[in-house]
Target: Cell division septum initiation DivIVA, interacts with FtsZ, MinD
Amino acid sequence: MYRVFEALDELVTIVEEARSVPMTSGCVVPRGDVLELLDEVRDSYPSELDDAQDVLDHRDELVNKAKSEADDSLNSARSEAEKTSSEARAEAEKMLADARERADEIIAQARAEAEQTINNARREYEDHIARAQSESDRMVQAGRAAYDQSVHEGRAEQARLVSETEVVQQSQQEAKRVVDEAHEEAERLRGDCDAYVDSRLADFEELLGRTLRTVGKGRQQLRRPMSAPFDYEEWQASEHGTVVSEH
Model:
């Protein structure tokens, strides 16, 4: 390395002492001396520089290879991520479709049960009305029969006791009392029937309210964002429990 610096110094000296070319910034140097010094500089460089250059070349090759492998890994990771995302999206859509289908089944079942309850209540109401009407008619007929019998007996008694006006009046009052009692009993039975029907309709109204709240809860579960997972088993169990308690 000392010879390298020495040869470089000689080259500098040659250039500095070289004859200038007029009208230019160039100079005339002895070609042979300069080439000889350059050969000495080249020969004086240690072989480690070539090894270092080989190391640098190998480093570039390793860097390029690592970059290529990194690009391949990145592309593979992206493909895997897209595949996983697609599968997750498909699974989420399937779960949502299953939840909607189950919700539709629950709504349809609730509607069927509501219609059945309405029909049962209507039939029961009609049966009570029919029985009440029959009982009312029977009571009215019994009252009329008692009234007719009282009138007939009163008339017979009046014919027999023409002079006894008080007996006739008592008979008429008794007949009127029997008819009034018959009418009052019929009205009481009609009122009891109406109260019973109103109670059954109130129970049915409460059942419909609970059914609507159950349907509302199912719709709220369907509106949950995807970040909050839909617990279908827990929701199904709670809904079945509610329906059973209502029955």
User: Anything to note?
Assistant: The first helix runs from residue 2 to 17. The beta strands are 19-20, 27-28.
